[in-house]
Design goal:
35% of the residues lie in helices and 22% in strands. It is of the alpha+beta class. It has a 4-stranded mixed beta sheet with strand order 1-2-4-3, covered by helices on one side. It is globular and about 30 Å long.
């Protein structure tokens, strides 16, 4: 299992099929101090992973960023890093 260290916490990354979704529009979810869940069939798993990492950072730093703030930031950060060839698409387990 892949883990991402954010601050002092290790977040397991769980790749999920569509059955887990609590919100039909969600492609990922961040559970504070627990885990990150990313949809296998999502439109852009790399962006979704960055999005959920940003939620975890916001939580750990007490930034209280809202979904309306994180969503465009994750899109722009993912695009900037991909365009600069500093980020490759994540390998989604089969």
């Amino acid at each position: 299992m892949v883990k991402i260290r954010i601050g002092a916490l290790d977040y397991p990354v769980k790749w999920m099929d569509d059955d887990w979704k609590e919100d039909t529009n969600a492609e990922g979810v961040h559970y504070p101090q627990k885990e990150l869940k990313i949809a296998i069939n999502g439109s852009d798993p790399t962006r979704t992973l960055i999005h959920e990492v940003m939620h975890a950072i916001s939580n750990q730093c007490c930034l209280r960023l809202k979904e309306e703030q994180i969503h465009p930031l994750a899109i722009m950060l993912t695009r900037a890093l991909k365009d600069a060839k500093l980020l490759k698409d994540v390998m989604v387990p089969k």
